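Journal club side-thread
Mid-discussion, someone asked how the predicted structure for our own chain would compare to the paper's figures. Pasting it here so we can look after the session.
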Amino acid sequence: MKRAVVLLSGGLDSATALAFAQAQGFECFALSFDYGQRHRIELQRAKEQAELRKVGKHVVVNIDLRTFGGSALTADIDVPKDRTEAHMAEEIPITYVPARNTVFLSFALAWAEVLEAKDIFIGVNALDYSGYPDCRPEFISAYEAMANLATKAGVEGQKLTIHTPLIDLTKAQIIQMGLETGVDYAKTSSCYDPSEDGRPCRRCDSCKLRERGFEQLGRIDPLVEQFVKIGG
């Protein structure tokens, strides 16, 4: 069975990317990061997804990006709330973490070499997201080219491929893909500013995009439904 490293944040997109990779016949090794994010509940969700999907191994790397700050996810900056989709599309939001995917992919690349894996999966999305520069196809293509120049495996002709199965999908299409591959979305977390028990705020950009995706499928988000049942 071919091996693949899958970046697993514990969010809706990364859980779907993991399920997709397994459906493609890969033995998956999940990689998560404790980078000082305010929404650390996602790490618990990543652990749950890794266990549910029975990955080959799940590694959590500690990198404190609060050292640099510059983002509402890693500094004492308010998370934007109640923005319209038009407003979301106007500019790169303050929830963008500088160079985060570049850093994460570098770790994934290193682990892939150790595992002798030729494939990395990342759940970036360029269509239904807030314009993050490191979620664009151009970035992924450039990074893949660099990876094949900068590694022993690449120099020896073992080409690495970075897979982005969600990059051109709407949130509704991503959810549909996940439902077809058995993703338990009640055990994911997308909120940028959740409560300590993991309750989503339902007001940040990520929550709004997620909720709209479920609505377009005529479904209720099972994570929201779960909290409604236990206390409204």
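Post-session note: The chain is about 40% helix and 10% strand.
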